[in-house]
UniProtKB/TrEMBL annotation:
The keyword DNA-binding applies. SUPFAM superfamilies: Homeodomain-like. This is HTH tetR-type domain-containing protein. Keywords: DNA-binding. GO terms for molecular function: DNA binding. Residues 28-47 bind DNA. Residues 5-65 form the HTH tetR-type domain. The keyword DNA-binding applies. InterPro entries: Homeodomain-like_sf, HTH_TetR. Transmembrane segments: none annotated. It comes from Lactobacillus kalixensis DSM 16043.
Amino acid sequence: MRRKTISKQQIINISYDIFCKKGIDYLTARKISNIGKFSTFPIYYNFSSINELHDAIIDKILEQINDHFQYMSFQNIAQFNFEFMEFIQDKPGIGLSFFENRYFYQKLNQELEKICKITLLERPKAEILDYNLSFIFSICAYFGYTNYSSEKAHVMLQIIMNSFATY
């Protein structure tokens, strides 16, 4: 009987799907192999450690964020926040991972700071930008830890963002 061949890209894709639903801390070799219906061998054959696989997934998430925001520009922070909320609404694992995994927190924070500086037409003061990043991660928490609907999140976000939408 011929064995099923599992590529590195297939492992990344399966892991990415798990990450988006459950978060990075849910990504173990056993869970990935069970969901993918293969042994753990291809994981350890293609990656020197589970951390190397985590890095590949984080890189894929950051690449998607960059691709999503690449040609956008925003008049203010509120518009950026609305767009980011739309991006993550079907990816609760991003919110979970942000709060549960320090390494992912640092990588995402650095990337969002760069994106804010590039896409915002009006440059906010540094303290406003820092506050905004904290706010974005609060949005991540809503999507990561609750079944918050996009409509309810928009209402909540609009109320809060009105306080500093002019920055």
